[in-house]
Amino acid sequence: MAKTTTSEADRAEQGLGYAVNGPYYDVIFPAAVRASLTDALRRLVSGSRAIAEIGPGTGVFTETLLELLGPDGEIFAIEPTRIMRTALVTRLSRIPAAAHTVTVLPEDALTAEVDLPLDAVVLFNMIMHFPPEQRIRLWRRWAAALRPGGLLITESQHPQTATAVPPSVIPGGTLGRHRYDTLARADVVGEDLIRWAMTYRTWRGEKLIREETAKFDCHVVSDEALAAELSAVGLERHPAAPEGIQAWRRPPCSPTAPATERPAANAPSTPPRR
Ligand SMILES: C[S@@+](CC[C@H](N)C(=O)[O-])C[C@H]1O[C@@H](n2cnc3c(N)ncnc32)[C@H](O)[C@@H]1O
To answer: Which of 214, 241, 243 is nearest to 230 (CA)?
Structure first.
C-alpha cells in the first residue's frame, strides 16, 4: 500500500502542529529572519505583476509583497491550514490595498490553481513539509506556472543534513505583561527526516506561566539537492540571489510549458495535478 503523509492542514485540524503554533506565530517570529527575507523580496520581486505565495501562514511576507507589487499587480496566497488562513485573512482585511489585489486560496500547493503566468512564486519557511516525491510535483507545477524570466524563491534550509539540533532559545516579542520565546530542538527520525519540537513559552517577569509544544516532522533538503531538483525542472540559478536565498529563474527564452504541467495557467479547465 502506498505510504501517505498527513498534511499539516489535517494535523492542525487534530489540534497538532500549526494549531499549537498559530496563536504565537507573529510574536515569536525571529526579527532577524523577518528582516533578511523581507530584504530579499525587495531585491527580487519589486514591481512584479503576478505573484503566488505558497504557505503564507499569517501573512508576515504577504504584507511585504503587497507593498512591492507593481501597478495592477496581483497576489495569490495559497494557505490550506485553517488557523493560519484565519490570521492571514484578518491581517489582509485591515489593509485597503489588499481588497482588490490578494486572492486567498484554501487549497494546497499541489492543487491550487492560478490563471495567469507568474513573475514570482515565493515559498518561505515551508518546503520542509514536502517529502521528496511531492517536491518533484511541487517544482514541476510551479516552475511551469512562471512566465519566462519569472523567479521561484525559497530560503536555504537549516540544517543542511539530517542531524540532531541541540536545544536553543529563540527570543520573541512581548505583548502587555507577557514576554514570549521558543525553545527549539530537533531529533533525527528517519532518512532525511528530522522532528522539530518547538516549545512556545510565555513569561511574566521571570516566571514561566505557560508552555505548549508543537512537533513537526521536516524533510531535510540540502542546497545541493535543491539545485539538482530545480535544475531538473528547467530552472536556472539567479545570478544575484542574496545570501541564504535560493532564487531560481525560468530561462527568459524558455518555451511555454505543456498545459498538463501548469497549475491551470492560461488553461482554467486543466485538472489539478496530484
Ligand atoms: C512555517 S509557516 C511559514 C509561513 C510564512 N511563509 C512565513 O514565512 O512566515 C509554513 C506554512 O506552510 C503552510 N503549508 C504546509 N503545507 C502546505 C502545503 N502543502 N501547501 C501550502 N501550504 C502549506 C502551513 O499551513 C504554514 O502556514
So the answer is: 241
Q: Which residues line ligand 1 (CB under 6 A)?
A: 7-8, 18, 54-57, 60-61, 78-81, 84, 108-109, 124-126, 129
- Residues with Cβ < 8 Å from 117, sequence gap 6 or more? 50, 145, 146, 147, 150, 265, 266
Ligand 1 centroid–CA 7 distance in Å is 11
Q: Contact, 161 vs 225, CB < 8 A?
A: no
| Ligand 1 atom at shortest distance from the alpha carbon of 108 | 20
**Residue with CA nearest ligand 1 atom 1:** 125
Can you name the residues that pair with 249 across neighbouring β-strands?
A: 151, 236
The residue whose C-alpha atom lies closest to atom 10 belonging to ligand 1 is 126
Per-residue pLDDT of the chain (274 residues; tens, 9 = 90+): 344 579 999 999 999 999 999 999 999 999 999 999 999 999 999 999 999 999 999 999 999 999 999 999 999 999 999 999 999 999 999 999 999 999 999 999 999 999 999 999 999 999 999 999 999 999 999 999 999 999 999 999 999 999 999 999 999 999 999 999 999 999 999 999 999 999 999 999 999 999 999 999 999 999 999 999 999 999 999 999 999 999 999 999 876 554 445 554 333 233 233 2
> How much distance in Å is there from the Cα of 96 to the middle of ligand 1?
24
Per the listing, cell 533578511 goes with 36
Q: Whose CA is closest to atom 14 on ligand 1?
A: 55
